[in-house]
Write a structure and sequence with these properties.
Blueprint (H helix, E strand, L loop, with lengths): L2 E3 L4 E3 L4 E19 L11 E2 L5 E2 L2 E2 L5 E9 L9 E7 L17 E6 L4 E6 L8 E10 L2 E11 L2 H8 L5 H18 L9 H8 L84 H41 L8 H43 L24 E8 L8 E6 L6 E4 L13 H22 L5 E6 L10 H6 L9 H24 L15 E9 L5 H13 L5 E7 L12 H6 L1 E3 L4 E5 L6 E5 L9 H15 L3
Parallel strand pairs: 1-10, 15-18, 15-19, 16-17, 17-18
Antiparallel strand pairs: 2-12, 3-4, 3-7, 3-8, 3-9, 5-6, 6-7, 8-11, 9-10, 11-12, 13-14, 13-21, 20-21
Helix pairs in contact: 1-2, 4-5, 6-11, 8-9
Length: 653
């Protein structure tokens, strides 16, 4: 599975022959530095750049480009090379941008030779910098790892190379820029901008020397189309003068799955002119779980696309109204009297007509998604289902791990009652943080701090219960750190059912003991993996199941050593089956300063009450997250935990 890194996060490399792919949206220079154990580069012969693109174990591109592929063979590196830095820089002396703040955030992915993605990193937060160290491949205890760096330099390549201890940094930076200038002079010029005549030809439905014109032209201000494999989309009613808009997400798979024995029955044929009737599990996939998983994400993407198109159409209508008012009222003689009033009324009427047509299309798509949700929700297995789904009443401890887990719902304000399951793949690739502080939502406006902290613990218990319920009885263990015992009553469902590996740890000694045991487990499993040994090489008393550590009231009860151990678990734990679920208020840990920033960034922030804090990088929506709490007064969570506890007790040791 791909690890989506954040700044400062590390991830083990399972192989030594790699390809590093860079996408920036604008021409950039890509290079690599070969450093010693301290990261120092001892000479220009240890820097791969367009003027010297090939070094032992590393090869980079010969010119600036928006996309790069760097080849790395860690076993072929020269003697004394312990760190490989991947650097990106904007070419100087060209018409392009001179600082990263003016370009899209560069995206870097590390893949194997088979193309399988190992880790990726989006470099955000850059401003005046014109050069940046994107990633670092480094050797630790004989094994190679990757670290997301994202360190920018406003002084460009010269400052970056000087920071790596290169004495000839300025001269080498000049040589790199000269090599880029030579490459630019040899490149093919970009095509000239489209003329107004070409635009009219395209709008009229034909292009010179081309076949049939496309039918999904979008109006100014609409979301741009995404280049994806073609999907058959029924024609939609236009909402602006630019032409019809496709409200179907281009990534939505509608190809029917292969017909295994568990395939759902075909949907009844819809009447002519009516939308197709939804069927649970009609997405692509080899199993029902996979089809439902793909269908849920397809619903998420369709909702995002439909709302984005509606909002863009409204923005376009507002912009067009303002432009028409400016033109009509630019003459002072027409601002007063009947002519001015008529111009205002016509502009407002056109705006309302465009918005009404966009709203009609949105309502049609939302009605279809709502109908699909009403069919899909009852068909979801326990791993994807809400606590109020009847599937939990027939719950049995599974024998296999599912693809994903539901950790809440997401929704948009245009249709708040339409909730899409928020699914995360299993095993977890990153830890979770339940924010116990004062969250910025209307739901928390009338709650005091104690209520929010209590709900945060309830959310952690609900997520832990779902994890325990979807894993086989012997393949998941939960530990709890509650230094002051403040959450004892809220943790009762876990403690009474006997599903915890040990009673909640309290006090500084309890914190130290749990962290030391889990840290040792991470070290031993990593050593066994590096040595190619199996589980039989581990100590016989070690629990090889996936481990979840719930930490309540952080940082109370944590000293500096415990803090470093926690950061180590957050960084190295997920790759060897140790996961964090923290219940904490970030302000309580502010005294530690920036030392904890990598920890918070590595965790997925969730809230105990609904809040619109989940950002969608595709279309920029702010999704409202709802925690996966059981209905008020329901005992379904306790009943499920009781069955898990019984299965764990009956499992042979």
């Amino acid at each position: 599975m791909t690890a989506e890194l954040v700044r400062g996060q590390s991830h083990p490399l399972p192989q030594t022959r790699l390809e590093i792919r860079v996408s920036a949206g604008t021409p950039i220079v890509a290079g690599a530095t070969l450093g010693d154990e301290q990261g120092r580069v001892h000479g220009v012969e240890r820097v791969a750049h367009p003027g010297s693109p090939a070094l032992p174990g590393v090869e980079v591109s010969r010119q600036a480009a928006a996309e790069h592929r760097l080849a790395v063979d860690l076993e072929a590196l020269g003697e004394g090379v312990h760190r490989v830095g991947v650097l990106l820089a904007l070419p100087l002396g060209t018409p392009g941008p001179s600082r990263f703040a003016a370009v899209a955030a560069p995206f870097v992915a590390v893949t194997g030779l088979d193309g399988a993605e190992i880790a990726s990193y989006t470099i955000t937060g850059l401003g005046e910098e014109s050069a940046v160290v994107a990633l670092e491949l480094y050797r630790r205890q004989g094994a190679w790892k990757i670290r997301a760096v994202g360190q920018g330099y406003a002084g460009g390549l010269a400052d970056l190379l000087a920071d790596h201890g290169l004495p000839e940094a300025g001269r080498l930076a000049t040589a790199v820029q000269e090599a880029i200038a030579v490459g630019v002079s040899r490149s093919v010029a970009a095509p000239s901008p489209r003329t107004s005549d070409d635009a009219r030809v395209r709008a009229s439905g034909a292009a010179p020397g081309a076949g049939p014109a496309r039918t999904d032209v979008e109006p100014p201000g609409a979301q741009p189309s995404v280049a994806q494999p073609s999907v058959a989309v029924p024609p939609q009613q236009g909402v602006a003068d630019g032409g019809p808009i496709s409200y179907a997400h281009p990534r939505r798979r509608t190809t029917p799955p292969p017909p295994p024995s568990s395939a759902p029955s075909a949907a009844p044929a819809a009447a002519p002119g009516e939308p197709a009737r939804p069927v649970a599990g009609d997405a692509a996939g080899w199993s029902m779980d996979e089809r439902l998983y793909n269908q849920v994400w397809g619903m998420f993407e369709d909702l995002a696309r439909a709302v984005a198109a509606f909002r863009s159409a409204v923005d376009f209508a507002d912009s067009r109204r303002e432009q028409e008012l400016d033109r009509a009222l630019s003459d002072p003689r027409g601002r007063l009297g009947s002519a001015g009033n008529q111009a205002r009324e016509e502009a407002h009427a056109k705006r309302e007509d465009l918005v009404a047509r966009a709203k009609e299309a949105l309502d049609r798509d939302l009605a279809q998604l709502t109908a699909e949700s009403e069919v899909v929700e009852p068909a979801l297995p326990p791993a994807y289902a809400r606590w109020d789904n009847p599937v939990w009443h027939a719950y049995r401890v599974p024998m296999e791990i599912p693809m994903a887990l539901r950790i809440g719902d997401v929704r948009l304000p245009e249709r708040p009652e339409l909730r899409i399951p928020m699914l995360v793949r299993l095993p977890l690739e990153r830890g979770l943080w339940i924010d116990a502080g004062r969250v910025g939502s209307e739901a928390a406006a009338f709650m005091d701090a104690a209520q929010i902290k209590g709900l945060a613990v309830d959310t952690a218990v609900a997520i832990a219960a779902r994890l325990l319920a979807v894993y086989p009885a012997h393949e998941f263990a939960v530990h709890v750190i509650d230094p002051a015992g403040s959450a004892a009553s809220r943790l009762a469902p876990l403690t009474r059912s006997g599903v915890l590996a040990a009673p909640p740890a309290a006090g500084a000694a309890g914190v130290s003991e749990v962290l030391a045991r889990l840290t040792e487990r991470v070290d031993l499993v990593q050593m066994a993996a590096r040595g190619g040994a199996g589980a039989d090489a581990l100590p016989p008393d070690m629990d090889t199941a996936e481990q979840l550590l719930i930490v309540n009231d952080f940082p109370h009860g944590f000293d500096d050593r415990a803090l470093n151990q926690l950061r180590y678990l957050a960084d190295e734990g997920p790759s060897v089956g140790v996961h964090l679920l923290m219940v904490a208020d970030r302000e309580d840990a502010s005294e530690y300063g920036p030392v904890l920033h990598p920890l918070w960034r590595s965790l997925l922030r969730l809230t105990p009450v609904p809040e619109d804090h989940l950002a969608d990088p595709w279309v920029g929506h702010a999704w409202t997250y709802e925690p996966p709490l059981a209905p008020s007064g329901s005992r379904v969570l306790e009943q499920v935990l009781d069955r898990v506890g019984e299965a764990r007790a009956a499992w042979p040791r």
